[in-house]
Design goal:
By secondary structure, the protein is α/β, with parallel strands linked by helices. The protein is built from 6 helices and 6 strands. It has a 6-stranded parallel sheet with strand order 3-2-1-5-4-6, sandwiched between helices.
């Protein structure tokens, strides 16, 4: 099952909502610090509801620590950005992919984006790049859209453990 990775997330409810999606799908959630909030933040817990016991949560002190972990586990680093052109729907996901999403305010730094094995976007006809007024999707929406496409492609469905949660 692909894993969701949040690079230095800043907004507690977004991370809580991503955690809930991960709990519902049986997908691991990796958080790369520093975080823009305390992990026991009330808003974070509220957004994740009572699903936190079912979240396979991994915290990494920094990007270097995360990269060391990822290399031990294997798999491709697939980064998402509104600044690239390849749509996520044209990409063949694998079970061992790491789905990396950037900060809410600034996305992924250019060096992190460049180091990824693949760089994808969630196309938005109403985006600034397309002549509209929307800069980006909400982090939790983008993470869910991409994760469910990966699950659909892989035919893995949602684990019974996650459904029973």
């Amino acid at each position: 099952m692909p894993r969701v990775v949040l690079f230095e997330p800043e907004i507690p409810p977004n991370t809580g909502n991503v955690a809930r999606t991960c709990a519902a799908t049986g997908c691991e959630l990796h958080l790369i610090e520093p975080l823009g909030f305390q992990i026991d933040d009330r808003q974070l817990k509220r957004a994740g509801l009572d699903y936190w016991p079912w979240v396979q949560l991994h915290r990494h002190a920094n990007l270097v620590s995360f990269e060391q972990h990822r290399r031990r586990c294997g798999g491709r680093l697939v980064a998402f950005s509104s600044q690239v052109d390849q749509p996520y729907t044209s990409f063949a996901f694998r079970d061992d992919d790491w789905l990396l999403h950037g900060r809410e305010s600034s996305g992924l730094p250019p060096d992190v984006l460049a180091a990824a094995d693949a760089r994808l976007t969630v196309p938005m006809p109403g985006s600034v790049r397309s002549g509209g007024g929307v800069r980006s999707l909400n982090l939790s929406v983008a993470a869910a859209v991409v994760l469910f496409e990966a699950i659909r492609q892989l035919g893995t469905g949602i684990s019974s453990t996650a459904r029973d949660a």
